[in-house]
């Protein structure tokens, strides 16, 4: 399982719509948080080991209505 975090910059007034759409339509999206700073949302996503991260981000996340820009963080190890 691969874990990635994707920060999303939304069109003005669309952050809640993007968050709702991601949670409702993408099973890989585990959590969506509204955040401060240059981006509006942070999504935590779980992808299968063989999944192509680039394709997921460009074809599934960036094409959500209202998404303006993304910044992807690939994780290595989770500490509990």
Automatic annotation (TrEMBL):
Originating organism: Nitrospirillum iridis
Gene3D superfamilies: 3.30.70.920
Keyword DNA-binding in record: yes
GO molecular function: DNA binding
UniProt keywords, alphabetically: DNA-binding
Domain called Transcription regulator AsnC/Lrp ligand binding: residue spans: 6-77
Name this protein carries in UniProt: DNA-binding Lrp family transcriptional regulator
InterPro entries (alphabetical): Dimeric_a/b-barrel, Tscrpt_reg_AsnC/Lrp_C
